[in-house]
Amino acid sequence: MDSNDEGHNIISCNQDFEKLFHFKESDMVGRNLDELIAGQEYIEDAISYTKETLKGMAIHGSGKRQRKDGAYIDVEFIGVPIIIDGKVIGAYGIYRDISERKREEEALRESDERGNDFIFKDLNRAGERIENIKKEDLIGKSVLEVFPGVKEFGLFDVFKRVWETGKPEDHPISLYKDEKIIGWRENYIYKLPSGEIVAVYDDVTERKRTVEALRQSELELSIRNQIANTFLTIPYEEMYEEVLRVILEAMESRFGVFGYINEQGALVCPSMTRDIWDQCQVPDKDIVFPRDTWGGIWERALIEGKPLYSNESFSVPEGHIPIKSALSVPIILHGEVIGLLTVANKETGYDEKDQAFLESIAKYIAPVLHARLQRDRQEEDKKKLEDQL
Fold this sequence. Notes:
Layout: E1 2-4, E2 10-13, H1 15-21, H2 25-28, H3 33-37, H4 39-54, E3 59-66, E4 72-84, E5 87-97, H5 99-113, H6 125-131, H7 143-146, H8 150-153, H9 155-165, E6 169-177, E7 182-191, E8 197-203, H10 205-233, H11 236-250, E9 253-261, E10 267-268, H12 275-279, E11 288-289, H13 296-304, E12 308-310, E13 326-333, E14 336-346, H14 352-388
Antiparallel strand pairs: 1-2, 1-5, 3-4, 4-5, 6-7, 7-8, 9-10, 9-14, 10-11, 12-13, 13-14
Helix pairs in contact: 10-11, 10-14
Protein backbone atom coordinates (compact mmCIF):
# COMPACT_ATOMS: atom_id res chain seq x y z
CA MET A 1 0.00 0.00 0.00
CA ASP A 2 1.22 3.49 -0.63
CA SER A 3 -0.11 6.84 0.44
CA ASN A 4 0.47 10.17 -1.19
CA ASP A 5 -0.17 13.86 -0.66
CA GLU A 6 -2.34 16.23 -2.67
CA GLY A 7 0.18 16.37 -5.50
CA HIS A 8 0.11 12.59 -5.66
CA ASN A 9 3.66 12.46 -4.36
CA ILE A 10 4.58 9.33 -2.44
CA ILE A 11 4.74 9.59 1.35
CA SER A 12 5.41 5.91 2.16
CA CYS A 13 5.05 2.37 0.82
CA ASN A 14 5.27 -1.17 2.15
CA GLN A 15 7.67 -3.99 1.22
CA ASP A 16 5.21 -5.59 -1.21
CA PHE A 17 5.15 -2.39 -3.26
CA GLU A 18 8.97 -2.27 -3.21
CA LYS A 19 9.13 -5.90 -4.36
CA LEU A 20 6.55 -5.38 -7.11
CA PHE A 21 8.22 -2.33 -8.69
CA HIS A 22 11.84 -3.02 -7.66
CA PHE A 23 12.20 0.35 -5.93
CA LYS A 24 13.35 1.09 -2.38
CA GLU A 25 11.06 3.27 -0.28
CA SER A 26 13.87 5.79 0.11
CA ASP A 27 14.03 6.11 -3.68
CA MET A 28 10.32 6.89 -3.93
CA VAL A 29 9.39 9.23 -1.10
CA GLY A 30 8.61 12.68 -2.44
CA ARG A 31 8.36 11.56 -6.06
CA ASN A 32 5.20 11.70 -8.16
CA LEU A 33 3.56 8.24 -8.27
CA ASP A 34 2.25 8.53 -11.81
CA GLU A 35 5.55 9.69 -13.25
CA LEU A 36 7.42 7.00 -11.31
CA ILE A 37 5.52 3.87 -12.37
CA ALA A 38 3.36 4.81 -15.36
CA GLY A 39 6.09 5.55 -17.88
CA GLN A 40 5.58 7.75 -20.90
CA GLU A 41 3.34 5.23 -22.65
CA TYR A 42 0.73 4.95 -19.89
CA ILE A 43 1.06 8.31 -18.08
CA GLU A 44 -2.26 9.62 -19.38
CA ASP A 45 -4.05 6.49 -18.20
CA ALA A 46 -2.54 6.83 -14.71
CA ILE A 47 -3.38 10.55 -14.46
CA SER A 48 -7.02 9.85 -15.37
CA TYR A 49 -7.34 7.58 -12.36
CA THR A 50 -5.54 10.12 -10.14
CA LYS A 51 -8.07 12.81 -11.08
CA GLU A 52 -10.88 10.54 -9.92
CA THR A 53 -9.35 10.03 -6.47
CA LEU A 54 -8.69 13.78 -6.15
CA LYS A 55 -12.41 14.26 -6.75
CA GLY A 56 -13.06 12.02 -3.74
CA MET A 57 -13.97 8.88 -5.68
CA ALA A 58 -12.61 5.38 -5.08
CA ILE A 59 -11.16 3.72 -8.16
CA HIS A 60 -10.60 0.12 -9.28
CA GLY A 61 -8.76 -0.63 -12.49
CA SER A 62 -5.97 -2.45 -14.23
CA GLY A 63 -3.30 -1.69 -16.76
CA LYS A 64 0.39 -1.60 -17.58
CA ARG A 65 2.81 -0.05 -15.12
CA GLN A 66 6.59 0.26 -15.27
CA ARG A 67 9.16 -1.25 -12.90
CA LYS A 68 12.47 0.39 -12.04
CA ASP A 69 14.25 -1.65 -14.74
CA GLY A 70 11.89 -0.26 -17.40
CA ALA A 71 9.92 -3.48 -17.88
CA TYR A 72 6.15 -3.18 -18.00
CA ILE A 73 3.93 -5.47 -15.91
CA ASP A 74 0.18 -5.93 -15.73
CA VAL A 75 -1.29 -4.75 -12.43
CA GLU A 76 -4.68 -4.46 -10.79
CA PHE A 77 -5.10 -1.48 -8.46
CA ILE A 78 -7.50 0.08 -6.00
CA GLY A 79 -7.34 3.72 -4.96
CA VAL A 80 -9.21 5.10 -1.97
CA PRO A 81 -9.21 8.89 -1.30
CA ILE A 82 -8.35 10.18 2.19
CA ILE A 83 -10.92 12.85 3.08
CA ILE A 84 -10.70 15.06 6.14
CA ASP A 85 -13.23 17.83 6.81
CA GLY A 86 -14.63 17.28 3.35
CA LYS A 87 -11.30 17.84 1.70
CA VAL A 88 -9.24 15.21 -0.20
CA ILE A 89 -5.76 15.29 1.31
CA GLY A 90 -4.36 12.09 -0.24
CA ALA A 91 -5.10 8.50 -1.16
CA TYR A 92 -4.24 4.92 -0.35
CA GLY A 93 -3.32 2.68 -3.25
CA ILE A 94 -3.14 -1.13 -3.43
CA TYR A 95 -1.40 -2.82 -6.36
CA ARG A 96 -1.40 -6.50 -7.36
CA ASP A 97 0.63 -8.22 -10.09
CA ILE A 98 -1.76 -9.90 -12.58
CA SER A 99 0.80 -10.63 -15.33
CA GLU A 100 0.25 -14.39 -15.08
CA ARG A 101 -3.51 -14.00 -15.30
CA LYS A 102 -3.13 -11.80 -18.34
CA ARG A 103 -0.95 -14.38 -20.03
CA GLU A 104 -3.56 -17.03 -19.34
CA GLU A 105 -6.30 -14.80 -20.76
CA GLU A 106 -4.20 -14.15 -23.85
CA ALA A 107 -3.55 -17.84 -24.23
CA LEU A 108 -7.28 -18.53 -23.94
CA ARG A 109 -8.02 -15.84 -26.52
CA GLU A 110 -5.48 -17.36 -28.90
CA SER A 111 -6.99 -20.75 -28.13
CA ASP A 112 -10.41 -19.57 -29.28
CA GLU A 113 -8.91 -18.04 -32.41
CA ARG A 114 -7.14 -21.28 -33.25
CA GLY A 115 -10.23 -23.41 -32.88
CA ASN A 116 -10.14 -24.61 -29.29
CA ASP A 117 -6.42 -25.19 -29.27
CA PHE A 118 -4.41 -25.54 -26.05
CA ILE A 119 -1.32 -23.58 -25.01
CA PHE A 120 1.72 -25.10 -23.33
CA LYS A 121 2.52 -23.71 -19.88
CA ASP A 122 5.05 -26.26 -18.66
CA LEU A 123 6.92 -29.46 -19.51
CA ASN A 124 8.97 -31.52 -17.07
CA ARG A 125 12.41 -32.97 -17.71
CA ALA A 126 11.04 -36.40 -18.57
CA GLY A 127 8.92 -34.81 -21.29
CA GLU A 128 11.94 -32.93 -22.62
CA ARG A 129 13.90 -36.17 -22.78
CA ILE A 130 11.14 -38.24 -24.40
CA GLU A 131 10.31 -35.70 -27.10
CA ASN A 132 13.87 -34.33 -27.45
CA ILE A 133 12.62 -30.77 -26.98
CA LYS A 134 13.46 -27.96 -24.56
CA LYS A 135 10.76 -26.54 -22.33
CA GLU A 136 11.55 -22.96 -23.29
CA ASP A 137 11.00 -23.84 -26.96
CA LEU A 138 7.33 -24.74 -26.45
CA ILE A 139 6.06 -22.57 -23.58
CA GLY A 140 3.37 -20.28 -24.97
CA LYS A 141 3.00 -22.29 -28.17
CA SER A 142 -0.09 -24.24 -29.15
CA VAL A 143 -0.33 -28.00 -28.83
CA LEU A 144 -1.17 -28.32 -32.52
CA GLU A 145 1.85 -26.22 -33.46
CA VAL A 146 4.31 -28.34 -31.47
CA PHE A 147 2.64 -31.74 -32.02
CA PRO A 148 0.77 -31.55 -35.36
CA GLY A 149 -0.14 -35.25 -35.21
CA VAL A 150 -2.08 -34.95 -31.96
CA LYS A 151 -5.52 -34.91 -33.62
CA GLU A 152 -4.92 -38.05 -35.65
CA PHE A 153 -3.39 -39.56 -32.51
CA GLY A 154 -6.77 -39.07 -30.76
CA LEU A 155 -5.42 -37.19 -27.75
CA PHE A 156 -6.69 -33.78 -28.79
CA ASP A 157 -10.31 -34.93 -28.48
CA VAL A 158 -9.52 -36.21 -24.99
CA PHE A 159 -8.13 -32.78 -24.07
CA LYS A 160 -11.35 -31.11 -25.17
CA ARG A 161 -13.60 -33.57 -23.35
CA VAL A 162 -11.66 -33.29 -20.10
CA TRP A 163 -11.62 -29.50 -20.38
CA GLU A 164 -15.39 -29.42 -20.94
CA THR A 165 -16.46 -32.09 -18.41
CA GLY A 166 -13.71 -31.94 -15.81
CA LYS A 167 -13.63 -35.75 -15.72
CA PRO A 168 -10.18 -37.36 -16.07
CA GLU A 169 -9.62 -39.83 -18.91
CA ASP A 170 -7.09 -42.43 -19.97
CA HIS A 171 -5.86 -42.40 -23.53
CA PRO A 172 -4.68 -45.98 -24.18
CA ILE A 173 -1.37 -46.93 -25.74
CA SER A 174 -1.37 -45.54 -29.28
CA LEU A 175 1.15 -44.67 -31.96
CA TYR A 176 1.95 -40.95 -32.25
CA LYS A 177 3.54 -39.82 -35.51
CA ASP A 178 4.49 -36.56 -37.18
CA GLU A 179 7.42 -35.36 -39.31
CA LYS A 180 9.80 -35.28 -36.32
CA ILE A 181 8.44 -37.75 -33.76
CA ILE A 182 7.22 -41.32 -33.89
CA GLY A 183 6.56 -43.54 -30.88
CA TRP A 184 4.02 -45.28 -28.72
CA ARG A 185 2.54 -43.19 -25.89
CA GLU A 186 0.18 -43.85 -22.99
CA ASN A 187 -1.62 -40.80 -21.51
CA TYR A 188 -3.69 -39.88 -18.46
CA ILE A 189 -5.45 -36.49 -18.71
CA TYR A 190 -7.02 -34.49 -15.88
CA LYS A 191 -8.14 -30.94 -15.17
CA LEU A 192 -6.84 -28.70 -12.39
CA PRO A 193 -9.14 -26.42 -10.35
CA SER A 194 -7.50 -23.51 -12.18
CA GLY A 195 -8.91 -24.88 -15.45
CA GLU A 196 -5.56 -26.03 -16.80
CA ILE A 197 -5.24 -29.43 -18.46
CA VAL A 198 -2.47 -31.79 -17.37
CA ALA A 199 -1.23 -34.75 -19.40
CA VAL A 200 0.72 -37.41 -17.53
CA TYR A 201 2.21 -39.74 -20.10
CA ASP A 202 4.78 -42.44 -20.67
CA ASP A 203 6.86 -43.47 -23.66
CA VAL A 204 6.17 -47.19 -24.08
CA THR A 205 7.87 -47.56 -27.46
CA GLU A 206 10.52 -50.02 -26.29
CA ARG A 207 7.98 -52.09 -24.39
CA LYS A 208 5.71 -52.11 -27.43
CA ARG A 209 8.60 -53.17 -29.68
CA THR A 210 9.49 -56.00 -27.33
CA VAL A 211 5.91 -57.26 -27.23
CA GLU A 212 5.56 -56.88 -31.01
CA ALA A 213 8.85 -58.71 -31.61
CA LEU A 214 7.67 -61.58 -29.40
CA ARG A 215 4.31 -61.71 -31.17
CA GLN A 216 6.05 -61.62 -34.55
CA SER A 217 8.43 -64.37 -33.51
CA GLU A 218 5.56 -66.57 -32.33
CA LEU A 219 3.63 -65.89 -35.55
CA GLU A 220 6.68 -66.67 -37.67
CA LEU A 221 7.30 -69.93 -35.79
CA SER A 222 3.66 -70.93 -36.26
CA ILE A 223 3.82 -70.21 -39.99
CA ARG A 224 7.06 -72.14 -40.37
CA ASN A 225 5.51 -75.15 -38.67
CA GLN A 226 2.46 -74.98 -40.92
CA ILE A 227 4.63 -74.62 -44.04
CA ALA A 228 6.90 -77.50 -43.03
CA ASN A 229 3.88 -79.72 -42.45
CA THR A 230 2.43 -78.68 -45.81
CA PHE A 231 5.62 -79.51 -47.72
CA LEU A 232 5.84 -82.90 -46.06
CA THR A 233 2.21 -84.02 -46.23
CA ILE A 234 0.32 -82.21 -48.99
CA PRO A 235 0.35 -83.56 -52.57
CA TYR A 236 2.18 -81.56 -55.23
CA GLU A 237 -1.00 -80.18 -56.80
CA GLU A 238 -2.19 -78.62 -53.53
CA MET A 239 1.08 -77.84 -51.75
CA TYR A 240 1.75 -74.43 -53.34
CA GLU A 241 -1.83 -73.30 -52.83
CA GLU A 242 -1.80 -74.28 -49.15
CA VAL A 243 1.53 -72.57 -48.43
CA LEU A 244 0.25 -69.40 -50.09
CA ARG A 245 -2.99 -69.54 -48.11
CA VAL A 246 -1.04 -69.59 -44.82
CA ILE A 247 1.11 -66.64 -45.91
CA LEU A 248 -1.82 -64.54 -47.17
CA GLU A 249 -3.68 -65.03 -43.89
CA ALA A 250 -0.62 -64.01 -41.84
CA MET A 251 0.00 -60.94 -43.99
CA GLU A 252 -3.65 -59.87 -44.24
CA SER A 253 -3.41 -59.84 -48.03
CA ARG A 254 -6.17 -60.56 -50.53
CA PHE A 255 -4.15 -62.11 -53.36
CA GLY A 256 -0.73 -63.63 -53.89
CA VAL A 257 1.50 -65.94 -55.88
CA PHE A 258 3.95 -68.63 -54.82
CA GLY A 259 6.05 -70.12 -57.57
CA TYR A 260 9.39 -71.65 -58.49
CA ILE A 261 11.92 -71.36 -61.31
CA ASN A 262 11.93 -74.46 -63.52
CA GLU A 263 14.86 -75.99 -65.41
CA GLN A 264 14.09 -73.81 -68.42
CA GLY A 265 14.30 -70.60 -66.32
CA ALA A 266 10.55 -69.91 -66.40
CA LEU A 267 8.51 -68.96 -63.35
CA VAL A 268 5.95 -71.68 -62.58
CA CYS A 269 3.05 -70.67 -60.30
CA PRO A 270 0.85 -73.65 -59.36
CA SER A 271 -0.65 -71.50 -56.58
CA MET A 272 -2.57 -69.46 -59.17
CA THR A 273 -5.25 -72.16 -59.35
CA ARG A 274 -7.14 -70.72 -56.37
CA ASP A 275 -9.67 -67.82 -56.37
CA ILE A 276 -7.24 -65.51 -58.17
CA TRP A 277 -7.60 -67.84 -61.17
CA ASP A 278 -11.38 -67.72 -61.06
CA GLN A 279 -11.55 -63.91 -60.78
CA CYS A 280 -8.93 -63.14 -63.40
CA GLN A 281 -10.52 -62.50 -66.81
CA VAL A 282 -7.27 -62.41 -68.83
CA PRO A 283 -7.67 -64.79 -71.82
CA ASP A 284 -5.31 -67.75 -72.33
CA LYS A 285 -4.24 -67.89 -68.70
CA ASP A 286 -1.25 -70.06 -67.84
CA ILE A 287 0.75 -70.90 -64.74
CA VAL A 288 4.10 -70.91 -66.57
CA PHE A 289 5.74 -67.53 -67.27
CA PRO A 290 8.84 -67.63 -69.51
CA ARG A 291 11.52 -65.03 -68.77
CA ASP A 292 10.52 -62.81 -71.70
CA THR A 293 6.98 -62.42 -70.26
CA TRP A 294 8.06 -61.11 -66.88
CA GLY A 295 7.26 -57.51 -65.99
CA GLY A 296 6.78 -55.00 -63.21
CA ILE A 297 7.59 -55.77 -59.60
CA TRP A 298 7.90 -59.53 -60.32
CA GLU A 299 10.61 -59.01 -62.87
CA ARG A 300 12.62 -56.61 -60.75
CA ALA A 301 12.45 -58.86 -57.68
CA LEU A 302 13.52 -61.93 -59.68
CA ILE A 303 16.26 -60.28 -61.76
CA GLU A 304 17.67 -58.01 -59.03
CA GLY A 305 17.31 -60.74 -56.41
CA LYS A 306 15.93 -58.38 -53.78
CA PRO A 307 12.51 -57.68 -52.21
CA LEU A 308 10.38 -54.81 -53.48
CA TYR A 309 7.04 -53.32 -52.48
CA SER A 310 4.78 -50.57 -53.75
CA ASN A 311 1.51 -49.08 -52.48
CA GLU A 312 0.59 -47.41 -55.74
CA SER A 313 -1.96 -48.92 -58.12
CA PHE A 314 -0.39 -51.12 -60.80
CA SER A 315 -0.97 -51.02 -64.53
CA VAL A 316 -2.34 -54.45 -65.40
CA PRO A 317 -3.68 -56.13 -68.57
CA GLU A 318 -7.37 -55.83 -69.38
CA GLY A 319 -9.37 -58.30 -67.32
CA HIS A 320 -6.62 -58.68 -64.71
CA ILE A 321 -7.50 -58.38 -61.04
CA PRO A 322 -6.90 -54.74 -59.90
CA ILE A 323 -3.67 -54.53 -57.91
CA LYS A 324 -3.57 -51.61 -55.44
CA SER A 325 -0.42 -52.65 -53.56
CA ALA A 326 2.05 -55.51 -53.78
CA LEU A 327 5.14 -56.99 -52.14
CA SER A 328 7.45 -59.39 -54.00
CA VAL A 329 10.25 -61.35 -52.34
CA PRO A 330 12.58 -63.68 -54.28
CA ILE A 331 13.31 -67.10 -52.76
CA ILE A 332 17.09 -67.46 -52.82
CA LEU A 333 19.31 -70.45 -52.02
CA HIS A 334 23.11 -70.22 -52.19
CA GLY A 335 22.86 -66.96 -54.12
CA GLU A 336 20.51 -68.38 -56.78
CA VAL A 337 16.89 -67.30 -57.20
CA ILE A 338 14.79 -70.47 -57.12
CA GLY A 339 11.31 -69.04 -56.57
CA LEU A 340 9.10 -66.07 -55.75
CA LEU A 341 6.59 -65.01 -53.11
CA THR A 342 4.24 -62.16 -53.95
CA VAL A 343 1.35 -60.83 -51.88
CA ALA A 344 -1.04 -58.09 -52.95
CA ASN A 345 -3.90 -55.80 -51.93
CA LYS A 346 -3.35 -55.44 -48.19
CA GLU A 347 -5.87 -52.85 -47.00
CA THR A 348 -3.30 -50.72 -45.17
CA GLY A 349 -0.53 -51.17 -47.75
CA TYR A 350 2.90 -52.67 -47.16
CA ASP A 351 5.89 -51.38 -45.22
CA GLU A 352 9.41 -52.41 -44.26
CA LYS A 353 8.10 -54.56 -41.43
CA ASP A 354 5.99 -56.58 -43.89
CA GLN A 355 8.99 -56.89 -46.19
CA ALA A 356 11.24 -58.18 -43.38
CA PHE A 357 8.59 -60.68 -42.30
CA LEU A 358 8.09 -62.13 -45.80
CA GLU A 359 11.86 -62.21 -46.32
CA SER A 360 12.25 -64.38 -43.22
CA ILE A 361 9.57 -66.75 -44.53
CA ALA A 362 11.28 -66.87 -47.94
CA LYS A 363 14.62 -67.75 -46.32
CA TYR A 364 12.95 -70.57 -44.39
CA ILE A 365 11.14 -71.84 -47.47
CA ALA A 366 14.25 -71.81 -49.71
CA PRO A 367 15.93 -75.08 -48.59
CA VAL A 368 12.58 -76.83 -48.12
CA LEU A 369 11.41 -75.79 -51.59
CA HIS A 370 14.73 -76.85 -53.11
CA ALA A 371 14.46 -80.29 -51.50
CA ARG A 372 10.87 -80.66 -52.69
CA LEU A 373 11.81 -79.61 -56.23
CA GLN A 374 14.69 -82.09 -56.27
CA ARG A 375 12.43 -84.86 -55.07
CA ASP A 376 9.71 -84.00 -57.59
CA ARG A 377 12.24 -83.89 -60.45
CA GLN A 378 13.73 -87.22 -59.42
CA GLU A 379 10.26 -88.77 -59.36
CA GLU A 380 9.52 -87.22 -62.76
CA ASP A 381 12.79 -88.58 -64.19
CA LYS A 382 12.02 -91.98 -62.70
CA LYS A 383 8.56 -91.97 -64.27
CA LYS A 384 10.00 -91.00 -67.67
CA LEU A 385 12.52 -93.82 -67.43
CA GLU A 386 9.77 -96.28 -66.48
CA ASP A 387 7.70 -95.11 -69.43
CA GLN A 388 10.68 -95.61 -71.74
CA LEU A 389 11.30 -99.10 -70.37
